[in-house]
Design brief:
heterodimer; A: Rossmann fold; five-stranded mixed β-sheet; globular; B: alpha+beta; binds flavin mononucleotide; binds iron/sulfur cluster; binds FE2/S2 (inorganic) cluster
Chain lengths: 584, 162
């Protein structure tokens, strides 16, 4: 069919959901018929993966939940021209709820174009912003446009990007570096992965514009090793960019030159911190160091260096092409533009979203995300990962902007948003994050190293039911010391998850300490697993899955769990088809 | 500081690796990554041979290697299982998956089965959080898992189906 194009979303999580199999399957049918079958990436509706989109006579229809059987239906409809209504995910009420409030600047091309084709990027106005820069603007003009846009760094700290660029532009030194921070360490966040997999050229173009504006000669994209597909697509994009003379010497026939390569991380969360990241690029242990000197004066190999996050660079081409006002018209308090969030956890529609500043958390969680996946009451949303905090449901009318989020005690962070319902224990969450930071501390500062260990011990004691009320004061006191005496953000912000949960969910801590109860039914020392006799059919399944043989019972007889032997692993609960096992 | 245990073959491989990746100080991490790509871990004698070729103390290279969690110092099983314990997976029951895989294989987190078929590790986030909980086996990611589903998948690997 000549007027038909079929797109399959092959981002990492699409592939994980089976999209590659669907692609291969459809290929065998479509290729011989001469129908265009194309690769695209994450369109952000990850909850509905695998996703297939069909363009027919100029109209696009996006289908989700595509398995082989449904793929057959779609293949048939490509032949007949009559399309199913079922599983339409964008052109449906649900899809509208998910999409209508979003404004896509960074994610505009993601899931729409083929990320491995520079031509498709060019068709989507790609590299026009770069061309405009070298043809129409002086470097300092580019810096001031970015300043005027109000763009702040999307990697966490929220520093004004244009201002940062002006530091590098003004720094002394012939050889300057530009770094793209794609270390994305926040466990539960995948914004940068999706952008790099879905639209690598946009980030590269943002870097090129930054290089032109600041005089940088060499660029490094420092990417997490866990993102092999992002690394692959970046390398393809760089090569294509070099062939078309967007990257390399005498770019677009001018005397502007810039070289770019990818550096793979090696699994250390602290390397997301800018000074640690530069040490890692130099081939050293990734230990943060004191600032000043700031990277703009002494960065990689002591040369002036500018570091920005993936999403920060991803905003730049739009700003240049459309002007600062097109960006800062999305304004709320001191924040401008949009923010990309990775919506995950116990959320009905999890995925990648981009919203204008000022939307409230409630609008994101209930309207875009559709509430909890379990249908249970939502309890909190975690923002900012190990450096951030838990915002309780009663504060969900907080708008998304840097200042308002900070006021809650959480941080905007890089965009991880993990939704929690009433089956999530907030003490366990605090303990979880502290265990994470404790494990990732580089060990340089005493309080970050030892203090987080003490806090973790106390939290473990509380989740074991052995805590005391004084422990809460001790936690707050330790938190203060750690924040004050730590060298880098990892230590300084590590107490946030603990402080916010104590602040907003104190009663849950008290239940663990005073009543020896975990209200959410999570902390193993404080719960008992038992069979509900009325519901048990005696199917014996639970007894077969129990790893420690704690369950006894005859076939068709009521089963009983021996609380002494049971390790509360929960496997039997999941196995029972009759909801006959409960946590008390 | 010649390497005592380095046979000519090992030295030859070290030379090859250094030639391929480069010997500048900033190449240490890519060099280690290349060694691990080839052998699935960092064999002592090869690291020492690389140090010798680069004319730097092996201790310097180990200093870098031990800092990064990506690097392994013991051989890995044929299949590498990584259970994600990022935030989204944690609140969606990642511990259950670790428990059932551990039970299925008789190996603790961080360990390798005696038959050298499986190594069980955890990872901070695989970037597929909307499919939580997630497990990666070799290059393949499995999402929306339950303990019974993951058991079934692990059994398939045991039986050589993948
Ligand atoms: C422990 C730690 C981890 C960090 N991880 C990241 C990261 O994964 N990605 C990122 O862009 N910034 C991360 N940052 C922030 C960077 O240090 C830096 O502020 C940022 O890359 C600057 O870019 P921006 O101005 O565009 O936000 C981290 C900071 C700390 C303290
Ligand atoms: S605060 Fe922690 S991670 Fe940061 S430098 Fe100090 S010890 Fe290292
Ligand atoms: S699995 Fe459920 S129904 Fe079956 S024996 Fe166990 S408790 Fe009873
Ligand atoms: S919770 Fe685990 S240990 Fe306890 S009875 Fe169930 S399966 Fe056995
Ligand atoms: S990875 Fe496919 S929609 Fe997100
Ligand atoms: S938290 Fe498990 S994939 Fe991100």
């Amino acid at each position: 069919m000549e007027n038909t194009r079929v797109f399959v979303g092959l981002g990492s999580c699409g592939i994980a959901a089976g999209a590659q199999d669907i692609y291969d399957y459809m290929e065998t049918e479509l290729k011989p018929a001469g129908t265009d079958l194309e690769v695209t990436s994450c369109v952000g509706m990850c909850y509905a993966e695998p996703i297939v989109e069909i363009e027919y006579e100029g109209e696009r229809r996006r289908y989700g939940y595509v398995d082989k059987k449904f793929a057959d239906e779609l293949l048939e409809s490509v032949k007949t021209g009559t399309f199913p209504e079922k599983n339409l995910i964008a052109q449906s009420d649900e899809g509208k709820e998910y999409l209508d409030r979003q404004v896509k600047i960074v994610l505009k091309n993601c899931g729409i174009i083929n990320p491995e084709s520079i031509d498709e990027y060019l068709e989507a106005d790609g590299y026009k912003a770069l061309t405009k820069c070298v043809e129409e603007y002086k470097p300092e003009e580019v810096v001031s446009i970015v300043k005027d846009s109000g763009l702040k760094g999307r990697g966490g700290a929220g520093f004004l990007t244009g201002l940062k660029w002006s530091f590098l532009a003004g720094a002394k030194g012939d050889y300057k570096y530009l770094v793209c921070n794609a270390d994305e360490g926040d466990p539960g966040a995948f914004m940068d992965r999706s952008v790099l997999e879905g639209d690598p050229h946009k980030v590269i173009e943002g870097m090129l514009i930054a290089a032109y504006a600041t005089g940088a000669k060499e660029g490094v994209i420092y990417c997490r090793a866990e993102y092999p597909l992002a690394i692959k697509r970046l390398n393809i994009a760089i090569k294509a960019g070099e062939e078309k003379n967007f990257i390399g010497d005498n770019i677009l026939g001018t005397d502007f030159s810039f070289h770019l390569h990818v550096k793979e991380g090696a699994g250390a969360f602290v390397c997301g911190e800018e000074t640690a990241l530069m040490a890692s690029i130099e081939g050293k242990r990734g230990m943060p160091r004191l600032r000043p000197p700031f990277p703009a004066n002494s960065g990689i190999n002591k040369s002036p260096t500018n570091i920005n996050n993936v999403e920060t660079y991803g905003n730049v081409p739009f700003i240049i092409l459309n002007g600062a006002e097109s960006f800062n018209k999305y304004a709320f308090k001191n924040s401008y533009g949009t923010k990309v969030f990775a919506l995950a956890g116990k959320i009905k529609r999890g995925g990648l979203i981009e919203v204008p500043m000022g939307l409230t958390i409630r609008e994101i969680v209930t309207e875009i995300g559709g509430g909890t996946s379990s249908g249970r009451p939502v309890k909190a949303v975690q923002m900012g990962g190990p450096a951030g905090g838990c915002i309780p449901e009663r504060l969900f009318d907080t708008p998304i902007d840097y200042d308002s989020i900070n006021e809650t005690g959480a941080i905007m962070g890089s965009g991880g948003m993990v939704v929690m319902d009433d089956s999530t224990c907030m003490v366990d969450v605090a303990r979880y994050f502290l265990a994470f930071t404790q494990n990732e501390s580089c060990g340089k500062c005493t309080f970050c190293r030892i203090g987080t260990k003490r806090m973790l011990e106390i939290l473990t004691r509380i989740t074991d039911g052995k805590g005391e009320m004084e422990d809460l004061d001790k936690l707050v006191e330790l938190a203060e010391h750690i924040s004050k005496t730590s060298l880098c953000g990892l230590g300084q912000l590590a107490p946030n998850p603990v402080l916010t949960t104590i602040k907003y969910f104190r009663e849950e801590y008290e239940a663990h300490i005073k009543d020896h109860k975990c209200p959410a039914g999570v902390c193993k020392s404080l719960i008992t697993i038992q069979v509900i006799p009325d519901k048990c059919t005696g199917c014996t399944l639970c007894a077969r899955v129990c790893p420690v043989s704690a369950i006894e019972g005859e076939r068709k007889g009521i089963h009983v769990i021996d609380p002494e032997t049971c390790t509360r692993c929960g496997l039997c609960i999941e196995a029972c088809n009759f909801d006959a096992i409960e946590v008390v | 500081m010649a390497c005592k245990d380095c046979s000519n073959a090992v030295l030859e491989e070290a030379r090859q690796i250094v030639k391929q990746v480069g010997s500048e100080p900033e190449k240490v991490i890519p060099l280690l990554q290349e060694i691990q790509n080839r052998h699935s871990y960092l064999p002592d004698n090869l690291v020492e041979a690389v140090a010798e070729v680069m004319e730097v103390p092996a201790a310097d290279i180990y200093g870098v290697a031990t800092f990064y969690s990506q690097f392994r110092f013991t051989p890995m099983g044929k299949h590498l299982i990584k259970v994600c314990k990022g935030t989204a997976c944690h609140v969606s029951g990642a511990d259950l998956l670790t428990a059932s895989i551990s039970d299925e294989l008789g190996v603790e987190e961080g360990g390798t089965t005696e038959d050298m078929l499986f190594t069980l590790e955890t990872v901070a986030c695989l970037g597929c959080c909307s499919l939580a909980p997630v497990v990666m086996i070799d290059d393949k990611v499995y999402g929306k898992l339950t303990s019974s589903k993951v058991r079934k998948i692990v059994k398939e690997y045991k039986n050589g189906k993948h």
